[in-house]
Amino acid sequence: MAVDRLGHVAIQVADMDRAKAFYLGLGMKLVWDAQDWAYLSAGADGLALLGPDYKAAGPHFAFHFKTREEVVAVHAQLKSEGVAVGGVHDHRDGTASFYLRDPEGNWLEMLYEPPGGIPSNQGSDGDTG
Hints:
Elements: E1 5-12, H1 16-25, E2 29-33, E3 37-42, E4 45-50, E5 60-65, H2 68-80, E6 89-90, E7 96-101, E8 107-112
Parallel strand pairs: 1-4, 5-8
Antiparallel strand pairs: 1-5, 2-3, 3-4, 6-7, 7-8
């Protein structure tokens, strides 16, 4: 079990429409769009925009894993080492993850990313929304 890659960064935004327009204007693709959050990609890397009403997590960075089993295994390993970890949750976009703080207090997410990447709810091109 090993981290596959640093997959995304999540930032808090006050105005979802303004933030999406800005990052789409930089050439990012809209992968997932919901009222309270959006996920954009630039190649294999992602940016999550967390709106004012998003309550599941705050700003963080995420390590991505190739299988859900790896996420469950790293969760068990960290928990056995005495690290305070949240539960593993399945998300509406097909991913699964848990959150924790590193020893310096930074929030991070350990995330299973399905084969082919984060699934889109935006049709085939992903650049509208």
